[in-house]
Write a structure and sequence with these properties.
The protein has one domain: Alpha-Beta Plaits, CATH 3.30.70. Strands 2-3-1-4 form a 4-stranded antiparallel sheet. 36% of the residues lie in helices and 30% in strands. The radius of gyration is 13 Å and the shape is globular. With 96 residues, the protein is α+β, with helices and mostly antiparallel strands.
């Protein structure tokens, strides 16, 4: 399983627009093949920073989403709202 974390910093006046955009596409992302979970998080000390956390069955599933029209359209709209360069990590749980 892949856990994808994306950090995004927005112009303060664009935060509500981003939330509306995210919640409009969240059901479609969650229904994308291989996606098991997707949620929006907000930084407690700097409310202009948001994180998306998504769980994917595999790298292949995540990559299929990243080349999809859904991602391309959503990312184009999201990028227009940024105040900072986004950062992203693909992670996995560490087990003993």
């Amino acid at each position: 399983m892949i856990l994808r974390l994306v950090k995004m910093g927005f112009k303060p006046e664009n935060c509500e627009d981003f939330k509306v955009l995210f919640y409009s596409v969240q059901p479609m992302i969650a229904a994308f093949p291989g996606c098991m979970h997707v949620e929006l998080l907000r930084d407690k000390t700097n409310p202009d920073f948001f994180f998306t956390l998504s769980h994917w069955n595999s790298e292949k599933d995540l990559e299929a989403y990243r080349v999809s029209e859904l991602f391309k359209d959503t990312w184009t709209k999201t990028k227009a709202l940024f105040a900072h360069k986004p950062e992203a990590w693909s992670t996995e749980k560490v087990t003993q």
